[in-house]
Amino acid sequence: MPINIAVFASGAGSNFINLFNKIASNNLNGSIVLLVSNNPNSGAVKFAKNNDICIKIINKFRYKDKATINKEYKSSLKENKINLILLAGFMKKIPVDLIKIYRNKILNIHPSLLPDYGGKGFFGMNVHHAVFNANEKISGATVHYVNKDYDRGPILIQKKVEIQNCKGPNEIAKKVLEIEHEIFPKAVQIFLNKM
User: Which amino acids are annotated catalytic?
Assistant: First the structure.
């Protein structure tokens, strides 16, 4: 029986779209039934609308305090009978009690080889700028379980890519994104195989 997946995304949603397409082509035995986003104008939201995926916008403009935001997360996930949460470029910290409820059922994709270039402030292009400025020869991507500390949960899968010929952070970002698209579905499959 396919499991119900929620994707949390804030931006263009390329990992979300990639996962959706893998599932659509029967490469993954899951069903993305919910998109949670803090950004109503994101590419992820547009894609979800076009593909009849339930969308929940949760941000501080719609819900004034953390307690209400937390309640909205919980009720949306419960309503959609979610078994697995995938963070695909989600720019908000997941509340601790949500992490407790979905213990070992939240996966995050991170654009570096954790534990390097992880933690508060290290997301998206910030990571690639830091990697480039440090003259790293190798970067990559990591999928890990989410716990209460930013980017510190147990690693499920990671893959390296050579970046010594990259002329700047944008080139690194492009190479790393290819790795993300490769390993995130693999990580989901590993998770599903354990169920």
Answer: 110
